[in-house]
Specification:
Elements: E1 6-11, E2 14-19, E3 22-29, H1 32-48
Antiparallel strand pairs: 1-2, 2-3
């Protein structure tokens, strides 16, 4: 399937994270491994249309 970059951190004993391409959709896990599993599930929902109106990040070249 490939790879996708994500941001993660630990806060109050929980791991939180989101994909760089989908910054408005965050998930969490009790362990880093659980967070990664939840991120995989979230990614599948985001790219398959399982979540309506998904917002994505993009870059724009400026002159």
């Amino acid at each position: 399937m490939g790879t996708a970059r994500y941001i993660h951190w630990q806060d109050h004993g929980m791991w939180l994270g989101y994909f760089e391409d989908f910054p408005n959709y965050m998930t969490q896990g009790e362990t880093l491994e659980q967070l990664q599993e939840n991120l995989r599930d979230l990614y599948k929902d985001q790219v398959s249309g399982g979540i309506p109106g998904v917002r994505t990040a993009a870059e724009l070249a400026l002159e």
